[in-house]
Every structure is written in C-alpha cells, then in structure tokens.
Amino acid sequence: MWPLIVLLLHVSAVCSDSHSLRYYYTVVSAPGSGLPEYSSVGYVDDREIVNYNSESGRYRPKVQWMEKMEEGYWERNTQITKGTEASFRHNVRIAMERFNQSGGLHIVQVMSGCELRDDGGITGYSQYGYDGREFLALDTQTWTYVPTMAQAQITTQRWNSPDVEVGERDKNYIENICIEYLQKHVANGREDLERRVRPQVKVSGQEKGDTVKLHCQVYGFHPRAVDVKWMNKEDEVHSYETTHVLPNPDGTYQIRVSAEVTPKDGDRYSCYVDHRSLEKPQYIVWEPEKSSVWVIAVVVAVVVVVALLGIGGFVFYRRRKAGYKETGTSDTSSDSNNPANA
User: What global pTM score does this model have?
Assistant: First the structure.
C-alpha cells in the first residue's frame, strides 16, 4: 500500500549539517481501508513535526518545540489543510478516470519540500504517486512537470501551460516560503534536531557449511543518516542485505546489514560504520568462533575433571564412613566392661 512513501523516506536522508522540510499528503478513494481517507504529515529532517488527518480534523504539533510557533499558526493551517483535503479528494477521482477505474481502493500520494544544504544551497522536490508508482514529478531545472505515466500527460500539459505554470508557483514556495519556515523550525528545535548519539555496534556470524552469514547490528544512534557496510580488509563486500533505518521508541534509530561470505586464509571481515556523531568511521572486526574440535576438547576436559572430583569425593566418603564404624565398636566394648552395665 505504501511503497512510494517508504522509498521517499528511505532516499531522503539528509547528510552533514543540511536540513530539510518535507510534507507527505495521502488520500484514499474509499473508506474502510483502516486508514484515514486523507492525511498530511510534516517532517523536519527525520522528525515528524505536524500531523493532520480527516478523522481528527485538526492540524496538530507532534514535537514540543513546535508549540513555539506564532499565535494563530495552528488554526490558520487547520483551515488551509481542510481546503487541501477537499482538493485531494477531487484529484483521486480524476486519477481514477484517467485509468478507467470506476471503483476499488486507490491511493494518491504526494511529497513536496525543500532542503537547505550546509553550503547555503537550496534544493526542492514535488513528486506525485498513484497506487504506489510515480505519476509525475517536478523538474527543478526547468520548473516544469514531467509525466512518468501516459495517464499523467493531460495533467502535465495543463500544469505547464503559460496561463497556469504550476511549476513557477512551486519554485516560489520552495525557494521562499518553505525555506523560511524550515529556518524557523530549525531555530526552535535545534537542540533536538542536532543532537548526536553514538551508535552501538554488534557483529556476529552463522556458519552454514563453507559459508558464513555475517550480521552487523547498529542501534541507538541519532541522527538518522548512517553508512553501514561489510568490508574484507580494504575491499567492500558487495553481496549483502540491509534493512531500512528503523526508529526506536526513544527517538534513536537502528539498522542491520548482513552478508554471506566464504572465508579464505588471510580474510579479515569487519563492519564499517560512519555516522555524524563519530570523529572517524569505525571498523568492528568479526572474529570467528573457536573451532568445534577445540570446544569438544574443553568439554571433555571439564567432564574428566568433574569425574575425578566425584571419584575423589566418593573415596573420601567411604573412608570417613569406615572410620565411624571402628569408633562405634570400641564404644560398645567399653560399655560392656562398665560395671554400671553388669
């Protein structure tokens, strides 16, 4: 249901000290999917800052520092977003007509926003998706929209026409309004947005015959952007699996990268981790477990020691028991010779 949004969240990680402001809009064609019919979510970098959906009907802050916004900000944006909701509900119907669809569950998704790089440069984006595939996108070189599906051609022709020029309006939003609010949000939430938490790293391996499945678990880091990969000495291991960067309940993040290798003499595998909180990248070396022969030898030695201790204890117990019996016979003989027993 959500492949486009997941992809955009994954590729939009901001590196260095750049900051971005992004909005995701989603509308479904019919109720009953378990999702709000319309939702709007705003992010600064990797932090969700605002949220609106058709069930709450309110534009609401998602982090405490957003409450610093000027008086009237929340009511004004609630009314603006209600108008956007009505427009999106109409747009999903238009999209269904373009695809000759009269019913069923369909979804329109939009991502728009801006990025302020640490060198002062500005970039922006506006992308539309339909049923999980890209529908059309803004070309920020020409400030015109480009169709990525045949069904989007009518829309792009109208949007790019001289009397409409949607791309020029988006240019003004990206370079002025969006950047202005991004700077306000960063100023209000700088302590949260720019905090640095060093990643924790664990490496492990699972032997499968001649191959080993290596796992590198990196967790507890902030901010979200991170570079993790397996290395063999100075060479990158190209055949590996990776999860998306996933959030933790405490606001930090985690990721796992795995690789299947066939170790040879001289190989030395390590997990490479680079993150903004680190002065330089880390290399966490994977050490193969001790061979099974060595483990068996240790187990046998332990068993032998335990057995010897057991035998020694048994012999000591029998000797002590025998000593008790001899003492008992002497006492009885003395008693029999005691005049008090005559």
Answer: 0.70
